[in-house]
Every structure is written in structure tokens, then in C-alpha cells.
């Protein structure tokens, strides 16, 4: 079993308090600097020739933990000690625990009661009484010029005489002349009026609507992908480098950026990572496996009691929603790409604040159980990959007989 897969399995089997206690013991032993081989022998009483001989300090180890365990130098050293954590922690030579954070006692500032200030009495403003107005009697109106009497006013009135009757002598002559004019005009103008009222057939000119020019089609550059063909592929920070940026698994798909020497640069969520050409393929076959058939297999052959919800519902959750649904995990780890939330029967892979994969650990599931799904997309001596339109189902076999099953949303 690869050292990174052993680390994931150990994280699923140990709690966070045990790992923290072991990390404190390692920091105390390394101190200002010590060979990892010597440190391992002092902590366990055993020798491990495969460990690196270069000196590392406690600050180097703390930085490695904080950086997501990317450097491959500490990885076999830490995994070996984690496998023997009970022997290391139970040695007669006790390692002092990390100093606890002193509690800061903040003295309360006494509250001084303010003296009550008496409110000022309201000032009463007396409004002077309004003096009574003495109403003076108005003088009676007397016209300057005397009004004339009715007899005098009658002299100025106009005498109204009755109107004279109008003459009716030329009324009938005008009516007869008007009738004659109308009859004669109608007789003469009738053909012209009918000619105007008849609809004329005009030739219709059909104008062709100009067709718009077709819009130019913008051709987007074709995106090329590669798939990992084996378990635990180390993606390094530069071609032929030793600094491990991320450890990928069989069936993982990445976008190709460029090739150099015997490596290919892949897009790892904005992080530079290089994969060896002998561990990738650009030819990925497809199978006629439906989503429903794949999910039915998961529901029938895996223990889902610890989930409590429908499998597809988890892939729409973020980490707070996941915690609200099935409770808080007992452990949590991160690397350059993902966060891992550990539970008793498996763990969740969270990528870009969303559940990306579900892992069932210690399943004891054999290859024969996968036979109803048909032919796998890829099969090696220690792994298998099945894919439908939406999901990727993978089997990982360990050297100790234990197996792990992962369901990933593509």
C-alpha cells in the first residue's frame, strides 16, 4: 500500500487528540535539528534504514504539518510513527505535553454609579391676558349725491318698439334655384364620380427583404484532458522535481496545459502540478452504464447507515450543510486541492466548498461484487474504475486485504 494511502487509512483509524499528542512528541524529540533516522530510533527503539538521513528540526516538522504534508521527506517518517503511536506514547521516557494556553483573566472594571442629577423645574411662563376690545359703532353710510326718484329715472329709459316682420318674397326662388343646380350637377358629374369610386388594380411591387449576413462563429480552442492510470500518482511542482504538490488517484481527470520532457503540466485548481507521462492516458473509453444502475449497486452493496440521506443529495451540500445533516466529523485534514472530513465508516472529499466524493473505508468488498456493472473502464492489479454519465465508482485494494470504495461526481 502506498505511503499516502496508508496515511489516509491511519487518519480514519485514529482520532485527532492522538495525532496531536504524537506530533508534540515528535517536535520535542527533533528540537533544533536531528536526523530522521536517529529520531525514529530514539522514539521507537527500532531502526528503519529506508528513512531519510538528513537533519530536520521541530520547526521544519510544524511547517510541514501546516503546509498540508506536501514534502515527501517527512511522509514515510510520520506514517511509520503514526502506525506505532501506541508504543511511542507509552514509552517510559515521557514527553512533555505542549504548553497549554494560559487563560487570560480580565479584571472587570468597577462600575461607578453616576449621581442622580435632579431635573430642572419647568419654568412657568405667564401669558398676559388679552385686553377686551371695545367695539366702536360704525357710522351709517350717507351717499354724497342724492338718488333720483322713480319719475326721474323713467325719463332715461329707452322705449322698446316691436320688430317688423321679414319679407318672404325671394325665399322660394332661392330654393328652386338650388334644387335645379343640384339635379343638373348630379347628372353631369355622375360618371366622373363613379369612375373615382371604382377600385383600380395596381401592380404590386414585392421588395425582397435582404437576408442578414451570418454571424461569425467563434471557435473555442479544444480542451485536452488526461486521466491517471494508477493509484497514488505524485504530482510534483516542476518536471523531474521532488516536491510533491498533490497525490492523485486512478481515474482522476485533469486539463492539459503543456508537455515538457517526460512530464505533462496539468491544471490543479490554479496550482502548478506536473504528472509523469507514464502514469497518464488521453484515451479514456466509455461504457453503457446508467446513473441509476450504478447508484442501485452502491445502495445494495455498501454500508450506508452512517449517511442517513440519499447519495445524490450529498453532492449538492457544502461543508456546513454536511455537518448539519450527519453531525460534526471526528477529524479534518486538508491538502493543496481538497479538504477531508473523517467519520467512523468513511470520509468525505470536499473540493471548492462542495462535496466531491464519498469514501467507504474497510469495506472488504471484492472484485467479484462489481461484476453486475459489466466491464470496467480501467482495471489494474490493485484498482478498478467504473463510470456512468454523472458518477465515477472506484475500488482500491490494500496490501493487508482491506479495500476502499470511492464514489465521485464527475
What can you see in these coordinates?
The radius of gyration is 50 Å and the shape is elongated. The strands form four sheets. Strands 10-11-12-13-17-16-15-14 form an eight-stranded antiparallel beta sheet, with no helix packed on it. It has a five-stranded antiparallel beta sheet with strand order 8-7-6-3-9, with no helix packed on it. 28% of the residues lie in helices and 20% in strands. It has helices spanning 3-13, 16-30, 36-44, 58-66, 74-83, 85-89, 150-155, 171-197, 291-301, 311-314, 319-326; strands spanning 34-35, 55-56, 225-228, 233-236, 244-248, 253-260, 263-268, 271-276, 280-281, 331-334, 339-343, 346-350, 355-360, 378-379, 383-387, 391-397, 403-409. Strand 16 (391-397) and strand 17 form a beta hairpin. The protein contains eleven helices and 17 strands. It has 410 residues and is of the alpha+beta class.
Q: What are its keywords?
A:
410 residues; alpha+beta; eight-stranded antiparallel β-sheet; five-stranded antiparallel β-sheet; 11 helices; 28% helix; elongated
Query: What distance separates the N and C termini?
Result: 26 Å
Question: In this structure, how is the largest beta sheet organized?
Answer: 8 strands, antiparallel
**Low-confidence runs:** 95-136
Output the number of helix runs.
11
Mean pLDDT value: 80
Coarse shape: elongated
Order of helices and strands: HHEHEHHHHHEEEEEEEHHHEEEEEEEE
What order do the strands of the largest sheet run in, or round the barrel if closed?
10-11-12-13-17-16-15-14
Q: Helicity level, as a percent range?
A: 25-40%
* Whole-angstrom Rg: 50 Å
- Give the number of DSSP strands: 17
Strand content: 15-25%
Based on helices, strands and strand pairing, what is the structural class?
alpha+beta
Amino acid at each position: 500500500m502506498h505511503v499516502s494511502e496508508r496515511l489516509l487509512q491511519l487518519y480514519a483509524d485514529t482520532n485527532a487528540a492522538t495525532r496531536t499528542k504524537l506530533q508534540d512528541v515528535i517536535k520535542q524529540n527533533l528540537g533544533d535539528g536531528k536526523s530522521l533516522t536517529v529520531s525514529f530510533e530514539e522514539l521507537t527503539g527500532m531502526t528503519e534504514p529506508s528513512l531519510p538521513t538528513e537533519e530536520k528540526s521541530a520547526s521544519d516538522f510544524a511547517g510541514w504539518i501546516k503546509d498540508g504534508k506536501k514534502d515527501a521527506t517527512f511522509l514515510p517518517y510520520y506514517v511509520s510513527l503514526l502506525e506505532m503511536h501506541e508504543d511511542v506514547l507509552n514509552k517510559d521516557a515521557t514527553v512533555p505535553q505542549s504548553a497549554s494556553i494560559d487563560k487570560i483573566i480580565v479584571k472587570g472594571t468597577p462600575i461607578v454609579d453616576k449621581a442622580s442629577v435632579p431635573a430642572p423645574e419647568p419654568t412657568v411662563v405667564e401669558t398676559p391676558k388679552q385686553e377686551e376690545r371695545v367695539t366702536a359703532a360704525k357710522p351709517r353710510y350717507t351717499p354724497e349725491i342724492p338718488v333720483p326718484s322713480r319719475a326721474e329715472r323713467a325719463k332715461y329709459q329707452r322705449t322698446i318698439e316691436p320688430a317688423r316682420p321679414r319679407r318672404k318674397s325671394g325665399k322660394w326662388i332661392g330654393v328652386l334655384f338650388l334644387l335645379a343646380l343640384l339635379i343638373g350637377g348630379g347628372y353631369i358629374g355622375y360618371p366622373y364620380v363613379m369612375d373615382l369610386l371604382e377600385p383600380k388594380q395596381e401592380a404590386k411591387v414585392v421588395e425582397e427583404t435582404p437576408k442578414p449576413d451570418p454571424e461569425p462563429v467563434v471557435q473555442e480552442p479544444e480542451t485536452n484532458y488526461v486521466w491517471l492510470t494508477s493509484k497514488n500518482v505524485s504530482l510534483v511542482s516542476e518536471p523531474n522535481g521532488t516536491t510533491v504538490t498533490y497525490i492523485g488517484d486512478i481515474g482522476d481527470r485533469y486539463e492539459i496545459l503543456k508537455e515538457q520532457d517526460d512530464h505533462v503540466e496539468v491544471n490543479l485548481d490554479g496550482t502548478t502540478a506536473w504528472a509523469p507521462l507514464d502514469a497518464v492516458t488521453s484515451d479514456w473509453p466509455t461504457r453503457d452504464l446508467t446513473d441509476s444502475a450504478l447508484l442501485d449497486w452502491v445502495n445494495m452493496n455498501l454500508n450506508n447507515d452512517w449517511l442517513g440521506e440519499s447519495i445524490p443529495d450529498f453532492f449538492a451540500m457544502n461543508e456546513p450543510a454536511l455537518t448539519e445533516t450527519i453531525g460534526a466529523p471526528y477529524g479534518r485534514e486538508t491538502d493543496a486541492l481538497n479538504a477531508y472530513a473523517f467519520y467512523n465508516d468513511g470520509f468525505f472529499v470536499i473540493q471548492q466548498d462542495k462535496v466531491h466524493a464519498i469514501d467507504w473505508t474497510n469495506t472488504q468488498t471484492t472484485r467479484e461484487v462489481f461484476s453486475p456493472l459489466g466491464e470496467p473502464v480501467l482495471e489494474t492489479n490493485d484498482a478498478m474504475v467504473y463510470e456512468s454519465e454523472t458518477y465515477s465508482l472506484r475500488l482500491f485494494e490494500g496490501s493487508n486485504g482491506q479495500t476502499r470504495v470511492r464514489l465521485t461526481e464527475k
